[in-house]
Design goal:
Blueprint: H1 3-19, H2 27-35, H3 65-96, H4 111-133, H5 136-154, H6 161-182, H7 199-212, H8 218-235, H9 237-242
């Protein structure tokens, strides 16, 4: 696959994800689905492609404080696990195919910085969805609970004491800086032109810079996109927030 073909593939994949993304759908879709089976599942038409919901235990329950905190605890574990899996999967793939990415070696000290960047990206995507689908008080409660859960887990991920202290000391400050940065980016790629200013693409450039020292490594930036898309889909955020 050429770089041009890869860019088209990534553009199309991001668009498909955002098309079905919870923050881009009107609440009316949910109401219509109650009366029209053809509309159940929103914009997704192939039900066989959709995984079973991770949120069955919360189905039909109102977003009380206890429920939101319970959802945050479970999602926090998912986010940290997915971020770790995505980090290790990417690093292992790059290490196996170093020559394809013009890399001589993979510095394993990048694992924790890359892991944290995946964490902050997923927190931002979740917050965008919460903003669309929850009341302001619900969103604040949920995101605060989620942030604390992720912090508690992430501070134990590094094996070295120095890295543990780094995460504990800088987690929330780094998270706030990243969230402010990502607010300026668009979720949906344009129909034509480059992918500059698109959230997932800018994230890929950031990871490229951490690993390669440069944010213009096009192939590596593209390689990161499937990891993001797969994880965001797996969160099933509409089921989470709306209890569908």
């Amino acid at each position: 696959m050429t770089l041009y073909e890869m860019e088209l593939y990534i553009r199309d994949s991001i668009k498909k994800l955002i098309h079905n993304f919870v923050g881009q759908r009107k609440m009316q879709d949910k109401n219509d689905a109650k009366d029209d089976p053809k509309k159940q599942g929103g914009n997704v038409t192939n039900d066989s492609d959709q995984p079973e919901s991770n949120w069955e235990e919360f189905k039909g329950q109102e977003n009380s404080q206890d429920i939101l905190e319970g959802k945050a605890r479970i999602l926090g574990k998912m986010v940290t696990q997915f971020a770790y899996n995505d980090t290790m999967g990417l690093v292992e793939k790059l290490d196996e195919k170093k020559s394809s990415f013009n890399l001589t070696m993979i510095d394993l000290t990048v694992i924790i910085p890359v892991y944290l960047e995946f964490i902050f990206l997923y927190m931002h995507v979740i917050d965008r969805s919460a903003f669309q689908l929850l009341k302001p008080t619900e969103r604040n409660l949920f995101m605060n609970s989620l942030g604390l859960e992720i912090y508690l887990i992430s501070s134990k991920v590094p094996k070295s004491l120095n890295q543990q202290h780094f995460v504990k000391d800088h987690f929330f400050n780094m998270s706030n800086i990243t969230q402010n940065e990502y607010q300026a980016y668009e979720l949906t790629p344009p129909d034509t032109g480059g992918l500059s200013g698109v959230l997932f693409w800018e994230f890929g450039k950031k990871i490229s810079k951490i690993i390669c020292g440069s944010d213009d490594h096009l192939r590596l930036t593209m390689e990161i996109q499937p990891y993001i898309i797969s994880s965001v889909k797996a969160f099933q955020l509409e089921d989470l927030f709306l209890g569908t």
